Amino acid sequence: MNIFETFSLAIKNILSSKMRTFLTMLGIIIGISAVIVITGLGNGMETYMRDSFAELGTNLLQVNIQGRGSARNVSIDQMYEIVQKYPKYFEYLSPSVTVNATKRIGTETITSATTGVSEDYIYIKAYKIAQGRNFEYMDIVDRKKVCIIGEYINTTYYGGKALGDSIRIDAEKLTIIGIAEQKKDEMKEGGTDDFIFIPYTTAARLSRTRVRNYVVSAPNEDLMAESKSILENALYKIFEDEDAYTVLSMTEVLEMLNSMIGIVITILVIIAGISLVVGGIGIMNIMLVSVTERTREIGIRKALGAKERVILSQFVIEAATTSALGGVLGIVVGFLLSGVATKIVTALNSDPITVSPAVNSVVMAFAVSVGIGILFGYLPAKKAARLNPIDALRYE
Amino acid sequence: MSTMIEFRNICKYYEMGDETVKAADDISMKIEKGEFVAIVGQSGSGKSTCMNIIGCLDTQTSGEYFLDGRDVGSMSKNELASIRNEKIGFIFQQYNLLPKLNVLENVEVPLMYAGVHRGERRKRALETLESVGLSDKLKHRPNELSGGQQQRVSIARALAGKPAVILADEPTGALDSKTGKEVLAMLFEMNAHGNTVVLITHDNGIASQIPRIIRLEDGKVVYDGAPGEEKHNEHI
After folding, report:
1. What ipTM describes this predicted complex?
2. CA–CA dist A182, A202 (Å, integer)
3. Does any CB of chain A come closer than 8 Å to the CB of residue B29?
4. Touching check for B75 and chain A: CB below 8 Å?
5. Where are the alpha helices (DSSP H) in chain B?
6. Cβ contacts (< 8 Å) between B81 and chain A: which residues?
7. Cβ distance of B113 and A13 shorter than 8 Å
8. Phi, psi of A222 (to 5 degrees)
9. CATH classification of B3-235 is 3.30.70.260, yes or no?
10. CB neighbour class for B81 (10 Å; exposed up to 12, middle 13-18, buried from 19)
11. A301 vs B98: CB contact, 8 Å cut-off?
């Protein structure tokens, strides 16, 4: 009697009591579909995070200078020196000064993010100038009242004719000298195309602050770790105090967030896994009932020459087949639910997150369900195999 | 003629609480190849124990049992399973067919455990079913057949594996007298074809038709010989 025959016998037995088999499998179906949806959600979130960070720039280092008392600080020129010293590791540098002031176009107040930057910021953030010009050295030196705006502002407030017009920031009137090319297909308030860049010198004066933040771009994403440590070493030489500055790499932040998502997903999968164990116990329970019900059949089979191993494998394969069938149904249900989950998550969160189960999680789910069948089917199967043929034949 | 079944001082004891029940108490006997023997006795006489031991479903407490020249007493459970499959064709009172399988599949079961290949298995099962006159019921389930038909399926199943011994446990017990006679006739026919047949029964009416009877009482052999002579002895 080979595996194939044992298998077809198992299928026959399973099909002979469909309702019972379905109820037995229910625990596995629920468990597997939950695991599929949860891992799919994890994948979706990771993809979403990666895309969002790619937009921010994964080749960027954010430098924040806290300084050490008021005595020591790093000048903008010193920062430029560091960056220019290592052309292999650094490409562009720009100070970054956030301006928290009231912005008005005519009488209307706008919320656009306003940042004081250098002429290289455009390149760092991979914008292109569509109309007008970029900042020039003299704009920065002279703290000129000029700005570059995103396409969103141009279309929304100026009907596409913003160039040469002006924006008021607090009491100052800034002339629009450049308009960046639209980056995203869909523009919205607070999005990628809704911004105002002004010279950092102008920004520092408006906000009455010193430059404390810089953005540095690296030419190569793979060298981010080295770029970061070179920058940190250079800053340490100046401050001799690790607390005086922080250098944050976007890739690092992304990795950190991903590993946090990973932990949350793992915990959720473990919780869903508990229902797999419960499902396994359900299978074991039904198999035990089945062994009792089929005591006579087992006796007959043994009398006719079935060895213990044959009876054992018959019941184990039956349990594993039931469980595997539950696993397959669970995978199907999981995929259907993933579609529903995508719609729900996207509706709740204005950005689209696609719940997409990975192939390896499907394979895993199937393997786990077969494994559970074998594990929980073994005890009842052992009981069946050990039955004494005489007692089993007499069993009514 | 060679010996098919040989019991040498077979004893089987069961512990029932404090008491030891001697189900088989020093039984010795020989059954030759091609014989037709009835083992007769009232319930509790030890005939079921005897049948279980002959059928390799149970092992003796002491003594030796040779089946077709092989010492069965020292065999493991798996070896016993193989021996049953190979040497014994069971016919039970309650037929003991597998209810979920059809007639053909039921007859194939022992061949399947013997490792007979699919095609050959089907061929042999069909042949045997034809010999018991059930070629037209192949796809029927056991519960769709009459008692006599079911017993014929079980006879076919017993014969399919070409066993050394046909072991029939009260094969007519659940049948009406007419069908019972038919089944008995089939056993005679099997015997005529050279099969060794051992019939277990409590029914003297049936036993008296068998060439040789072994009568058991309280686990001991009280008579072994032709049925006619037993009556003669009783009269004395």
Report:
1. 0.91
2. 25
3. no
4. no
5. 47-54, 77-87, 103-113, 118-131, 147-160, 177-192, 204-207, 227-235
6. 302, 305-308
7. no
8. -70, -20
9. no
10. buried
11. yes
Mutate to test the interface with B, among A3, A9, A293, A300 (most CBs of B within 10 A): A300
A&B contacts, CB < 8 Å = 58
Task: Give residue A354's identity as a one-letter amino acid code.
Answer: T
Q: In what order do the strands lie in the sheet with A92-95?
A: A92-95, A213-217, A60-65, A245-249
B35-51 pLDDT, tens digit per residue, is 999 999 988 888 889 99
For B122-143, write each residue's pLDDT tens digit.
999 999 999 888 999 899 999 9
Rounded Cα distance between B195 and B211, Å, is 14
Q: Is the pLDDT of residue A233 over 60?
A: yes
Chain centroid to Cα A209, Å, comes to 36
CB atoms under 10 Å from CB of A276, counted, come to 26
Six token digits for residue A171: 């009491």
Q: What are the φ and ψ backbone dihedral angles of B163, each rounded to 5 degrees?
A: -80, 165
Residue entry with tokens 């079980």:
B154
* Residue B170, SS3 per DSSP: coil
What is d(CA B235, CA A382) in angstroms, rounded to the nearest whole number? 55
- 3-class DSSP assignment, residue A111: coil
Give the list of residues 6+ apart from residue A372 with CB closer than 8 angstroms, or none.
A28, A276, A277, A279, A280, A283, A323
Q: Is B102 touching A (CB cutoff 8 A)?
A: no
Token representation of residue A388: 């004494």
Rounded to whole angstroms, the Cα distance separating A299 from A41 reads 50
Banded pLDDT at A37 (limits 50, 70, 90):
very high
Q: Residue ranges of chain B with pLDDT lower than 70?
A: 1, 230-236
List the domain boundaries for chain B: 3-235
Please choose, from the candidates B87, B90, B89, B91, the residue with its C-alpha nearest in 3D space to the C-alpha of residue B72. B87
Residues of A in contact with B109 (CB under 8 A): 301, 304
Structural element, H or E, at residue A170:
none
Q: Which two tokens stand for residue B102?
A: 């059809």
C-beta atoms of B96 and A393 within 8 A: yes
Using alpha carbons, list the distances in angstroms from residue B196 to A231, A340, A351, B1, B132.
97, 70, 84, 12, 18
Q: Which amino acid is at A369?
A: S
Q: Which of A212, A259, A271 is nearest to A75 (CA)?
A: A212
User: Are A61 and A252 a contacting pair, CB within 8 Å?
Assistant: no
Report the alpha-carbon distance of residue B153 to residue B142 in Å, rounded: 8
Gyration radius (Cα) of chain A, Å: 33
Mutation target among B91, B96, B116 for the A interface, most CBs of A within 10 A:
B96
Which residues touch B85 (CB under 8 Å, ≥6 apart)? Answer: A304, A305, B110, B113, B114, B161
